[in-house]
Amino acid sequence: MRRSTKKNHSSFELSLQGLHPAPSQVWGAVRIVPLIREVPLKDLRLGQRRYQARYSTVAVDGQPDDPDIVYQSYIPYGMIVSFTDDGHPVTSVDTQLGRKGPAPRPCKELKNAALHRLIKRESKDSFRMLPLHLAMDGFLGLCFGGPDIAWDTWSQGVLRNGLSYRYETTLYASDLPDFSEAIRLFEIHDNQCGALVFVGDSFASGFVVSHPNDYRSLHTTMLEDFYGELLYYHGWRNRNVQSWAVHLDDSNVNTLDDLRASLERGRAQWASFEATMATGLIGRPVNAERCRYAGPYTLYRFATDLTRPGEHHIGEVMRHRDGTVAYLKTYRLSDAQHRRGRLLLTLDENDWELARAAKAMGYTQRRLRQALENNGLGRLLRHKSAQWHANRPPDC
Amino acid sequence: MPETHAADHIEREDLMMFINACFACTGQSEFYAGAASQRLSSEFLHAYIHGNYPRLYTLCLAAGINDYNKAEIVYRLLRAGAPAQVAERQHEGRLIAATLRRMPPQRVYRLFDRLRRTRVNNRRTRAVIRQWLAGRDAVFDAVKYRNRLRFIARHAHLAFDRLTGNPEVGEFVFAGARSRKQWQASLFETVRRAWYEEAAIYELPYTIAEGFASRRRIPRERFLQRIESRMTVGERQRLEQAGRRARAKLAELDLARMPLTRLALYILSRPREERGTEREAFEAALRKAALRALRRAPLRLPAHVRRVCAVLDCSFSSRASTHKPNRPLAVALGAHELLGQGGYDYRGFWTQRVRDPLLVSARGQSNLARPLIDALRCSPDLIVIISDGFENDLPGATDEVIRIYRERIEKAGTRTSIVHLNPVFDDRQYMPRALSSRIPTLGLRDAEDIATALGFARFADGTLSLVELEAYLRDRADDLIRSHDQSHRNRGDKHRSSDKLEHHSMEAVS
After folding, report:
1. Interchain contact, B316 vs A259, CB within 8 Å
2. What is this structure's pTM?
3. What is the pLDDT of residues A319-336, one digit of tens each?
4. A256 contacts on B by Cβ (under 8 Å)
5. A34: which chain B residues are within 8 Å (Cβ-Cβ)?
6. How far is CA B465 from CA A129, B7, B9, B468, B473, in A?
């Protein structure tokens, strides 16, 4: 059973402290807003490690050969995080895996790879993590323990083993229209440390790293992440995202210096306007679970409050003590995924008692059962006999 | 003379669009578009202009366009048949002959093959083929282009003995090198010997020798070292990388003989450390190449121009594609050098902070407005913007800057001309993409062709009319025909092909 200690949980507002946006680049359905860091963070560096397996199994709890909980997915790469405690720049070679770095360790094409833990310590100042899979594991593990009291609503399997298995389906980046082209054609700024990706002008994903060199080498890993199907529909519905031509304010412009100032003002306004399209996540409070300390930084995985309406995202963030965001990676939940999460959370808050949970959601019990069936959680329910259905209480 | 008739206005704009496209389009992949869509747009343009303005379409052969489009125009003209009037027919025939004479022979052979494949076989086509082949060294072509010659001979009903006066050529082309025990022509004899002995391979032209070498499995570095003297300049430059990889001890590449844009492409292909260590050699070679280009085609700017500034695009999109790596950046670097040596007070402004142009690389976003403002600060008489036109760090900012400058800042009496030269063809707009409609946009083929492109600037922005454009093109066509007749008269000695150094000459270049 999954144990989650409440003291690891906190809630804070997700911000892009330390970064400012620059004008976006548009290709087809995809808009990418670059995030510029004036002062790169040298005491936290991120590198890549490639995995060749077609499918990977991560032993989240327990030993690799005898795991208690496993997480399975297609994991093409992992991230090596190196840090220093005292603010000195990181010097280890592992994190310099850029395009010119050492070749990735040759490794046969494995059918199945076994990894131990989502975050695995490598040395005293580095660890290997699986970006986005960490957040997805948190989402899949919501209420994983299942009911504590043996209500007769729930099936025997759920009572004994908890939710036992949870799965979600996502899309490859290549399924989203124009996405691979947009990433390939993107012109990376010199100090760029992050990007906000919008598909069909809806916020898809945020990606931030600590140092511009790391960003350059990790930019194309955005093609290997997974994305929700909501973005697929948004992309196809809004196939040619607008790229407006700027109109500079020409009142009071009489010299070239004025013109230069007007241009810079226009750039700043433009960029900040585009960044406001991401307010579905940026500036919102999120529920975070602390996963790891890395020097002065802390790695959290978070999810937005699923019980409220609106956009929903899950992700990972690494924040400095003073709030600067050093690393961020988010995933936008599709509507179905959000509904499943909300149902599970509501059930959990109400001790898995169906009547109370239905009342909390404003449903009848029958409606709640229907909702569980419709959203792929019907296997949690105990199969009732025909006699029960004939004689059931009216509000069930 | 401003145009009064709307149809003339449209015709002039169409022609300028076509000429610009023919400067820039090569049918290869660019950064933002693939080869197929480039070719599709280019073919549409050719069909449109040929259908609507046939006389002017023919005259475009002399406009200084690139070889890809010249071949396309000649193909369409031959396919369409000769014009009805005798005078026009003769003029067109001489123009075609002059064009083909100046094109590299491999392109002409490819054009003839295309005529054969698409079954174009009228009397004029056969006459053109015959006439062009009569001016070639038959023995050399029979060795180097044997297959193509055979297909074309069947298609155009060529009689080799009447055409060349050498009875052996026909037999060599159709029956092969080993059909006789001994050949009179020495090159044929060498080819025959190359089937049996290795030493003869190294006396053949490079492309033929390569085939023999792979048959005998000669190690690459030994082959490259020994065949080096038989390579043309272009082949030698192309094989520089291959030579390094095979660790062949090739002689130093003669940088001083490379044309400007090709030299810039070579420099950009070297890693930064090498560019730093070989700095003097590269800079000297760039200077010499720029001066040579200026001698051949001087800039001839208007008399009042003293100060020239350039805005140069080194953003990531100037990396182009694997078909033409770094080409827009090389054109920018070449233009920087050329304008610097032009004798004007010159300064160049890049989209990134470039302290040393020799170490420039394609990085960063396309921010053209900032360097444009820096250039305007110098109050130049002419600003040349060299960019592929895809501006993303504020799309449309250049247009706005020019608008505000012209409306509010520019002093009455002074006029800074701004011209946009674009080496990349945008298939969606059927012309090189324009940064702003307020300035003329012109296609740019090579850095050396800046003078030609600027010559068309007055037509692009409408100061001169269609009648003058036609007259200008006609003058250029007459110049081309005249120089062709001149060299035709001196045809006894050598064939000199003037445009690009990578043409073949009779003797192999060492």
Report:
1. no
2. 0.87
3. 999 889 999 999 999 999
4. 373, 376-377, 405, 409
5. 365
6. 67, 12, 8, 5, 12
